[in-house]
Structure formats: C-alpha cells, structure tokens
Amino acid sequence: MVTVAFPVSCEVAFDYLADPHNRADWQSSLARVEDVDGEPRVGQTWTDVTKPGLRPRMETTELDRPRRWTERGTWWRVTATLTLEFAATPTGCDVTATFEINPLLRRPALWAVRSDLRHAAARLAA
C-alpha cells in the first residue's frame, strides 16, 4: 500500500485518475491507451499499450466517486488489481493505492505505482 498527497480535491483527483484517456499523461510505462469503451463506469474496458509493447486488457471493476476506484488488468496468465482510495485533507486529498499481483512482481509494481501517482499529483498541481 502507498499513499500520495494530491494538491486538489478528491473529485478532481478521482476524475483525472479514473479516466483512461489521461493514463499515458501520468503513467510512465504507457505509450498510449486504445479501445476505450465509453466514459468511466463499472465495466468500462480499454487496452494499455506499454512502452515495451505489452498490451494488457483493462477493466474498471469498482467506481464509487470520489471515494474508491478499482481496475483489473489481464495479460496472458497475469492478472493485477489496482484500487485507489481518496480521502480529503486540509490541502487537497490523499490517494492510497493497493495493488494485487503475483508476489514476485509486487514490490517493483508498488514502486512504479508510487512514482506514477507522484507524477499525477505534480501534473494536477501545475
């Protein structure tokens, strides 16, 4: 689990992070996002196109604006789940990420999630 402070409200952070169209702006491993199925909602799907060329299929599995959002990604036999929880603070909000994946990949994945969330917070501060 990692927590990153955002200098914006829960609603602003939630809307930015939950929209797949914004992903390549803040997620370092992505080249682009393709096949986005409509607006953010439970059941929305898209494909993350990573810089190394992997193409996990993604799906929003939980959306409780502006409190909690969960996605599931599947690539070959690997399935990963990312949950973001949003909590108001006096200066904006805290975003807490919980990540489930094969235990061997968990530590590097959490490091990447922390880095990406810090990048997103900086983009929203600008």
Blueprint of the fold:
Blueprint: E1 2-6, H1 10-18, H2 23-26, E2 30-34, E3 45-50, E4 57-64, E5 68-75, E6 78-89, E7 92-100, H3 103-125
Antiparallel strand pairs: 1-7, 2-3, 3-4, 4-5, 5-6, 6-7
InterPro entries: Polyketide_cyclase/dehydratase, START-like_dom_sf
Protein name: SRPBCC family protein
Fold and architecture overview:
The protein is of the alpha+beta class. The chain is 29% helix and 42% strand. The chain has a single domain (2-125), classed as Alpha-D-Glucose-1,6-Bisphosphate, Chain A, domain 4, CATH 3.30.530. It has helices at 10-18, 23-26, 103-125; strands at 2-6, 30-34, 45-50, 57-64, 68-75, 78-89, 92-100. Strands 1-7-6-5-4-3-2 form a seven-stranded antiparallel β-sheet. The model has no long low-confidence stretch (mean pLDDT 94).
What brief labels describe this structure?
seven-stranded antiparallel beta sheet, Alpha-D-Glucose-1,6-Bisphosphate, Chain A, domain 4, single chain, globular, 126 residues, alpha+beta, SRPBCC family protein
